[in-house]
Amino acid sequence: MVGFILMLIKKTVRIFTLLIITFFLIGILLRNPIFVFSKNENLNSISSPDLLKKHVQHIVNVSPFRNYANSDSLDKVAEYIKMEFEKNCAAVSFQNYEVDGKMYKNVICSFGGQYRKKIIIGAHYDVAADQDGADDNASGVAGIIELTRIIKENNIQPAHDLEIVAYTLEEPPYFSGLNMGSYIHAKSLNDKNDSIAFMLSVEMIGYYSDKWWSQNYPSQILYAFYPLKGNFIALIGGIKEYWNSRKLKTSLAQSMNTPLYGLNAPDIVPGIDFSDHRNYWKFGYNAYMITDTSFYRNSNYHKATDTIDTLNYEIMADIVQGLHGLAISKY
Fold it and tell me: What is the pTM of this model?
């Protein structure tokens, strides 16, 4: 009897140990860790927190609010983005399309033109309902505007064609439908049979907190593997992007100091496909999102309290440095 009990205990310990090992292996796979041994520091121009704040301020001050119902306000923001893009890009254009009798537009800045593959980096400039939308997503738009500036001023030509796109109509009531600006853009690439290395959606990059338990997650299991403070940036991808995510994470991490975490998961996980990258998946392109994790951290999400004074422009500038490293890397 004693021998049987001892054997049962040994088996239980083995099973328990195997479960623990499996649990942590799953966690490691989810995080997709990388190791960075060097930093890219030899730049003539670096991202400016003051310019980022200026861009956010201009975007949120457009009146009435830049939602789908106020197409004139969206046009004002689009004109501002175009004006800023033109300071840095040789080729800038509107991509116009009609929805329910109104005209809407994406704004496209292009670098290169001689390579076989393109990289797309984009952010949406519309807002949900009547709110400033400083983090969602004036922060992302300010980031891509500033990215064009430091690409030009550092005079390091990307090793591929690069399109930086400001999208319209990401927010409800058009979210997930065929009238999203990013769907229009992705479809246009597919219609032309363009070869895309990857697309990156810059979705909310301005909100950070050093308070414990300021970070939430879609699953309890993730609390064991990710920080409890909302002071990091996240790179999100689908399962099929798992191995390519490592390349993107390495390029980002080599050019910035903010902690970077990754998550590759199916789109059944809430939030995985909650931005413009979802539309590039529809056409078979590799697509990712870089984000402060949105409503899993920022309680101002889709509220009137999402204002300019809640953002951390120093960290935003560091994230743009990471985007620059990604934009000029080889893929």
Answer: 0.92
